[in-house]
């Protein structure tokens, strides 16, 4: 059967996705550039890993009772029957790359520090600050179990936010301890929640059997009262876990970074241990609600779990959309940069000449636009004004006959005729003068 060709069918972007249009993208660019500059100072190098990996990698690293794995995964079987998933977060892929490329080898620095920026995919209910395709900027540092590195990573996160003008931050930290701590705390949670099992939400009843720590992260209001009175992990820390956490806190004190210890905080991913942290902010951009913009922690068992040596790691992920909401709120979009030159062509041969001239001027480093709609002269000049052109070149019969361009400075109305070959040199002169005049 022939498919009926429909003309004019309207398509809409998939639910939970967003188009980032040029004006906004400019601000994204700026935020990313500032982040890169902060990363450079901390000796982080960029890593670019695939947007999809085997489903198993995420299931294994995030934990098969995490929300991400049980509810939010964009997974699919590819045409070869492999079970794949779009990445829900950055760490798993980076750890996979760290192991696969043996970046723990003696020829590489330790800690080995990388950052990434890019889209992540989670099947969630879209709402303000929550999308299905969203972006993260994140860092990972491998190969050191020093609590000083935890503190440095938190400082990096704070610096990053400050560098893009986001202040008024609230830092919450907690520790999930070492495996021994976790085991003791696990038992304490089972003992505490089991007599109240019937009062828990359906999800949390399952969590109780599989991973009781997850109950603390439940967003179901039904679980809140019980969670509020749950035992605190801080009472179950081994001396080693206690010591690690103490150094983190002392280091933050020394750095002058304010924090609160929130013993009920757990992270949405199973791979964390020892230090975990979240940076939150309340802003009119979030309807005056407090939202987490940056979250991370230490994951000492993950590299081994993904098939590598037993090497520790620590990192964070920052929600770029949430960050952009804050940045945009603090600073309204700037006006588009002025156009250096608009070339108005008054005939067809002049148009062809304009194309050549435009190329030469762009090569010299200036921004150029010209007419592509056969507009009348008057309308071309109007366009030049709308684009905020600093100079307008007119190519008419007279100019073509003399192989010269009329250049008009829009600010002063001053006009000169310059041979084609000298146009770029003349521009350099004009712009030099504008700079000297401080314009
Ligand atoms: P939440 O508890 O809000 O669901 P999470 O624990 O799932 O957060 P992480 O996996 O730690 O979040 O991701 C780090 C950051 O990425 C979050 O603090 C947030 O800023 C951002 N983020 C997470 N999910 C989304 C999403 N669906 N849309 C936009 N940003 C998101
Ligand atoms: Mg989530």
From TrEMBL:
Top enzyme category: ligase
Entry EC no(s): 6.1.1.21
Gene3D superfamilies per record: Anticodon-binding domain (3.40.50.800), Bira Bifunctional Protein, Domain 2 (3.30.930.10)
Catalysed reactions, semicolon-separated: tRNA(His) + L-histidine + ATP = L-histidyl-tRNA(His) + AMP + diphosphate + H(+)
GO MF annotations, alphabetized: ATP binding; catalytic activity, acting on a protein; histidine-tRNA ligase activity; transferase activity
Any one GO CC term of the record: cytoplasm
Chain residues that bind L-histidine: 89-91, 122, 136, 140, 267, 271-272
Keywords assigned: Aminoacyl-tRNA synthetase, ATP-binding, Cytoplasm, Ligase, Nucleotide-binding, Protein biosynthesis
Lineage: superkingdom: Bacteria
InterPro entries assigned: aa-tRNA-synth_II (IPR006195), aa-tRNA-synth_II/BPL/LPL (IPR045864), Anticodon-bd (IPR004154), Anticodon-bd_dom_sf (IPR036621), His-tRNA-ligase (IPR015807), HisRS-like_core (IPR041715), HisRS/HisZ (IPR004516), HisRS_anticodon (IPR033656)
Pfam families xrefs: HGTP_anticodon (PF03129), tRNA-synt_His (PF13393)
Domain Aminoacyl-transfer RNA synthetases class-II family profile: 16-338
Oligomer status and interactors: Homodimer.
Family per record: Belongs to the class-II aminoacyl-tRNA synthetase family.
Name of this chain's protein: Histidine--tRNA ligase
Gene: hisS
